[in-house]
Amino acid sequence: MIGDNHVAIAGRLKDLGALRRTPAGVAVIEFRLQHASEREEAGTRRTVEADIEAIAFETQARLVAAASLDSMMRVEGFLCARSRRSRRPVVHATRIEFIEGV
Fold it and tell me: Kindly report the CA angle at 65 between 21 and 86, in degrees rounded to 5?
C-alpha cells in the first residue's frame, strides 16, 4: 500500500440522511458538511468554500444522527471512493467532535 490518507475538516452540518443499517447490521449515515475558511496560498489569502460528502458508521453514525442541521463539527477520517461504480471521494468519518458556540 502507498501513502497517507487522513482528512481533518470542520464545517456545518447541511444535509443529513436517514440512519440505516447495512445488510450486515452496521449502523450507517450519510451527511454533508459545508466548509468555509481562509488559507494562504501562493503568498496571498484565499477564501475556501466547499461542500464535503461524508459517511459514518456505528458510534459515529449515531452521533451524527442525533445532531441538528447547522451544527458545527470537526470530522477526522479518510477518503474512499463512494462505490465500485463511482470513484468520487467521500470522507469516511472515524472521529466526530461537535464545536459549541460557533
Answer: 60
Q: How far apart are the first and last CA of the chain?
A: 39
Domains of the chain plus CATH, in order, are 7-98 (2.40.50.140)
Q: What is the pTM of this model?
A: 0.90
State the amino acid at position 58 in one-letter form.
E
The model's pLDDT over 38-66, given as tens digits with 9 standing for 90+, comes to: 999 999 999 999 999 999 999 999 999 99
Whether 7 and 79 have beta carbons less than 8 Å apart is answered as yes
Rounded to 5 degrees, φ, ψ at 66 are -85, -5
CA distance 84 to 91: 15
Q: Which three cell numbers stand for residue 98?
A: 461537535
